[in-house]
Design a protein that fits this description.
6-stranded mixed sheet, globular, 2 domains
């Protein structure tokens, strides 16, 4: 036995050595080329070919109405046994009563906080039991209630969804909790340059139009709201005559119709909201400096008139903004960050609403180069207005938009959101199927004409959140219109706790089960 162990050890070493010995390949047969290593055929000095972009094809929409007049759009999406539901209502921030900014947003945020028959906890538990999601919110032009569920649970989910849409109770205890959360959010925003700039920009740019206020409202307006205010707003605007339902998923019209009649069909139709007044045609040419002491950076929010969402030039605008400031390959990024080192990032985008829009340039720059950064920014606007975009730069911008489009329809919920855009803005049913083709047709001249019309520095409204002593002298020679210095909101009102000291106000109170 003692001689057997060394023999086994020697055998193991021999086998290991044999396994470690590189295997010799047999020479190629006569007349056959030798195989080159795979890595040698790859040229690593060039980026790989992007290949043909995937084509987006959204299934056709089937439209019908319930007995109460609620319009329904159905897209059969059979990839997974899931159904997404998105109810869009003309009850966005533009519908806020003048003295009550923030009412639409507050109302939407309370939709899932209890109904006449379910507490907030019961709503959450029931959705969780079904493996479903449900939530609500409000933008400027619309509000929405959305969710998703497994197709086999659709009947029970629609019962819950309809109860939340039709019967929110705005219970006092939950109202006070959400009110506290919103007040803490508004208090915290006093230290956030982006929020400070946005709140100042809206009334200056839009004036007294319903677009001219911050959608979350003010601390004063939120404090003054009551559950009755939310209930009255809901009763007036959250109605079938003022809404449209988008359903995307693994369900047919024959299956869906009776389920909707049984749930949402009992909703009283109500009346359609009156048209909003037309938006103003031009913004004032002026600059606001909102004082922020010892700010190491200046936050820049520059807005110029933009487009309605239904504009024929909208697709051209998306290409123009991609070239100007759509990402790391854009002009603003390459100039102000890569070349000059003034910023971590400055971006350009369009905000296209139902009635009008804004062309934005936003970002933070180092305080001591604020003037130099603005000079470069204005120079890039001038280039867009006067010079054609080179062919390769234009094609790269268009390819970025087209390649990113399918990801926006990757799920039933995402698809429902995009179809909801069509419903809110009255776009053609095949809008998204034609979008990539329209992007590809945009020419350099189209971009230049758009820029010449809309990226006009003579119509800019500029808001800077910065230290006036640092930046004001830097603005002297720039064509920015009259410059006004204002005090930014203080970090906290007299006698109130700072946001960092107020978490208790935002802590949810437990819902009371019935």
């Amino acid at each position: 036995m003692s001689r057997l162990v060394p023999s086994l050890a020697a055998l193991a070493l021999a086998l290991a050595a044999g396994c470690a010995t590189p295997r010799k390949e047999a020479p190629p047969a006569a007349g056959q080329p030798s195989a080159a290593p795979a890595a040698a055929s790859v040229d690593r000095t060039k980026p790989p070919d992007a290949g043909a972009p995937p084509e987006l094809r959204v299934p056709d929409q089937k439209k019908f109405k319930l007995s109460n007049g609620l319009a329904v759009r159905l897209v059969e999406y059979r990839r997974l046994p899931i159904v997404a539901v998105n109810l869009v209502v003309d009850a966005g921030a533009a519908r806020d009563p003048g003295p009550q900014p923030g009412l639409a947003s507050f109302t939407a945020s309370m939709m899932t906080e209890g109904t006449k028959t379910r507490t907030a906890t019961q709503i959450s538990d029931e959705a969780g039991f079904l493996g479903a999601s449900i939530g609500a919110g409000a933008s400027v032009d619309s509000a929405s209630l959305s969710g998703a569920t497994l197709a086999k649970h659709l009947p029970r989910f629609l019962e819950l969804f309809a109860d939340v849409a039709m019967n929110p109770a705005f219970p006092r205890a939950d109202f006070e909790r959400v009110q506290d959360e919103r007040l803490v959010t508004l208090l915290q925003q006093r230290d956030q340059p982006q929020a400070i700039a946005s709140k100042a920009f809206q009334p200056v740019f839009w004036g007294t139009h319903p677009y001219g206020h911050y959608s979350l409202g003010t601390e004063e307006s939120v404090k003054a709201m009551t559950p009755k205010d939310l209930s009255s707003f809901h009763d007036r605007l959250w109605r079938p005559a003022n809404a449209e339902l988008v359903v995307v998923g693994d369900v047919s019209e024959a299956e869906l119709r009776p389920l909707l009649e049984k749930s949402l069909g009992a909703w009283q139709a109500g009346a359609q909201a009156a048209p909003l007044p037309p938006a103003p045609g031009a913004s004032p040419h002026r600059t606001l400096v909102l004082e922020k002491q010892d700010a190491p950076q200046s936050y820049v929010l520059l807005g110029m008139p933009g487009l309605r969402r239904t504009s024929d030039e909208y697709v051209t605008s998306t290409v123009a903004f991609q070239v100007l400031g759509g990402g790391m390959a854009s002009r603003l990024f390459r100039n102000l960050r890569e070349d000059k080192g003034y910023t971590y990032g400055v971006y350009a985008r369009g905000e296209a609403r139902k009635l009008a829009g804004v062309s934005f340039v936003v970002g933070s720059v180092k305080a001591d180069v604020t003037g130099a950064a603005l000079k470069e920014l204005l120079g890039e606007l001038r280039r867009m207005r006067e010079e054609p975009v080179p062919a390769q730069e234009l094609e790269e911008a268009k390819a970025s938009l087209v390649l990113g489009l399918p990801a926006e329809f990757a799920t039933a919920g995402a698809t429902a959101g995009r179809i909801a855009d069509i419903a809110v803005h009255g776009l053609p049913d095949d809008y998204w199927n034609r979008y990539a083709e329209r992007v590809r047709k945009v020419t350099s001249d189209d971009v230049r004409k758009f820029a010449a019309t809309y990226l006009d520095p003579s119509k800019l409204t500029l808001v800077l959140v910065a230290h006036p002593d640092t930046v004001k002298s830097q603005l002297a020679d720039l064509p920015l219109g009259p410059v006004e210095v204002r005090a930014a909101p203080s970090s906290a009102p007299a006698g109130a706790p700072k946001a960092s000291q107020a978490p208790a106000a935002a802590k949810p109170k437990p819902a009371v089960k019935k």
